[in-house]
């Protein structure tokens, strides 16, 4: 009898302990829930609205540019947190879009990807060259060939040369391209049906077109359009969205993985059950990491690696705290090893619908924490900031 009493007391204590554990877990969950915007319907609708609005704007601009020798504007691609579905709670999200540029007729873009073999590519440039279109243009509408016809004939063609307007030397200039596009938007906004509901202001930027659309109620919508030149037929672009540092050369474009990233998250959304909370984890950590030395690009790399290894069915409410711990554990392991592999280089587990240049697929994995190996002080600081997390 004594043994039975002792046994039942122990079980009772264990039950209480387990109950306390789940009470603590539920309490933590409620705390985290307050920091997360659980409904994504509003974000999804506004993302769709922005894509529609910018698509209408580009239709107006394309009509204006139809007979010019300026870049040909392609359909926009929504990129970044708002279009991936995890925009941080708090301040109004900035809806970021990429406007792909194709060369006008009689011109070609040659992408110069910096030092040969260097990956990720740095110091990238877009060289603009003329090409002969004599046969092609005569077959179409007898338009003079830019390459061969004398300049006095070309003067009859409006805006005869992209080289003389948007380039420095033979290279596409980021600030000149941004200014050109901003001026186009200002002049075309009045033709938009949305102009009756929104007042539009172009905000200062030397590498993109930032718009603030305001309703009479005072509610504002922030849109940023960067410009991109596609690498072949891949999801990798050279983007104008570089840092707006004073010493950045005006002809330098940055290699961007934003389109590949948004395709990855959309691929996961198609595979995931409706209740999957992987985007909520991203949203929560976006707020937690604000003000620390850990960038959102680092967090997204960690998340993409984890989503490729942890089944999507495990990103649920019941295992939410475990997944948050997985994110911290993965980041901690990377910091200790001073190694975080870039997701898009040398990754054999890439979803098939993401198109990468052949060199990306055969490359050795690239370490984004290489600088921590070379700088002990930076590594010590990163470990200290992780402890604060």
Describe this structure in words.
The protein is built from 14 helices and twelve strands. The protein folds into two domains: 29-256, 2-Layer Sandwich (Beta Polymerase, domain 2); 272-388, Poly(a)-polymerase, middle domain. The chain has helices at 2-34, 41-65, 81-84, 134-140, 151-154, 162-165, 174-188, 258-271, 278-288, 296-307, 320-337, 358-362, 370-374, 376-388, and strands at 72-73, 77-79, 94-102, 107-112, 125-130, 167-168, 171-172, 199-203, 209-214, 220-230, 237-239, 254-256.
Estimate percent helicity: 40-55%
Biggest sheet overview: 8 strands, mixed
Number of domains: 2
> How many angstroms does the end-to-end distance come to?
50 Å
In the CATH scheme, the class of the largest domain would be Alpha Beta
Oligomer: single chain
Topology, number of strands: 12
Helix-strand string:
HHEEHEEEHHHEEHEEEEEHHHHHHH
In DSSP terms (H or I, runs of 4 or more residues), the helix count works out at 14
State the CATH topology of the largest domain.
Beta Polymerase, domain 2
Which outline best applies? globular
Q: Which structural category do the helix and sheet elements fall into?
A: alpha+beta
The averaged pLDDT comes out at 85
Radius of gyration (Å): 26 Å
Note the beta-strand portion: 5-15%
The low-confidence parts are: 1-9, 152-160
Question: Which tags fit this structure?
Answer:
389 residues; Poly(a)-polymerase, middle domain; Beta Polymerase, domain 2; two-stranded antiparallel sheet; 14 helices; 12 strands; alpha+beta
SSE inventory with pairings:
Elements: H1 2-34, H2 41-65, E1 72-73, E2 77-79, H3 81-84, E3 94-102, E4 107-112, E5 125-130, H4 134-140, H5 151-154, H6 162-165, E6 167-168, E7 171-172, H7 174-188, E8 199-203, E9 209-214, E10 220-230, E11 237-239, E12 254-256, H8 258-271, H9 278-288, H10 296-307, H11 320-337, H12 358-362, H13 370-374, H14 376-388
């Amino acid at each position: 009898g004594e043994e039975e009493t002792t046994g039942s007391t122990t079980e009772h204590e264990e039950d209480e302990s387990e109950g306390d554990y789940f009470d603590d877990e539920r309490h933590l969950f409620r705390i985290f829930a307050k920091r997360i915007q659980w409904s994504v319907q509003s974000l999804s609708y506004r993302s769709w609205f922005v894509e529609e609005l910018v698509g209408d704007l580009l239709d107006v601009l394309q009509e204006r540019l139809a007979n010019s020798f300026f870049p040909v504007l392609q359909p926009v691609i929504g990129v970044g947190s708002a279009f991936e579905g995890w925009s941080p709670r708090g301040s109004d999200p900035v809806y970021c879009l990429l406007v792909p540029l194709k060369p006008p007729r009689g011109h070609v873009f040659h992408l110069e990807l910096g030092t040969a073999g260097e990956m990720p590519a740095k110091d990238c440039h877009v060289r603009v060259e003329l090409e002969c279109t004599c046969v092609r243009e005569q077959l179409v509408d007898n338009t003079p060939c830019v390459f061969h016809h004398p300049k006095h004939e070309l003067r009859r063609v409006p805006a005869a040369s992209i080289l003389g307007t948007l380039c420095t030397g033979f290279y596409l200039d980021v600030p000149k391209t941004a200014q050109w596009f901003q001026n186009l938007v200002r002049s075309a906004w009045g033709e938009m049906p949305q102009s009756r509901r929104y007042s539009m202001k172009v905000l200062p930027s030397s590498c993109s077109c930032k718009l603030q659309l305001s309703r009479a109620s005072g509610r504002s919508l922030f849109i940023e359009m960067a410009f991109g030149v596609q690498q072949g037929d891949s999801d990798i672009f050279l983007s104008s969205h570089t840092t707006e540092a004073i010493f950045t050369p005006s002809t330098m474009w940055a290699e961007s993985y934003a389109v590949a990233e948004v395709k990855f998250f959309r691929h996961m959304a198609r595979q995931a059950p409706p209740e999957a909370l992987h985007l909520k984890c991203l949203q929560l950590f976006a707020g937690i990491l604000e003000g620390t030395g850990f960038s959102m690009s680092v967090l997204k790399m960690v998340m993409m690696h984890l989503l490729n290894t942890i089944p999507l069915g495990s990103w649920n409410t019941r295992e939410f705290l475990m997944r948050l711990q997985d994110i911290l554990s993965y980041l901690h392991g990377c910091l200790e090893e001073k190694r975080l592999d870039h997701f898009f280089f040398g990754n054999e587990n890439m979803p098939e619908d993401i198109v990468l240049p052949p060199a990306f697929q055969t490359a050795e994995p690239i370490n984004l924490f290489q600088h921590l190996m070379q700088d002990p002080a930076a590594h010590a600081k990163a470990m200290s900031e992780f402890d604060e997390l």
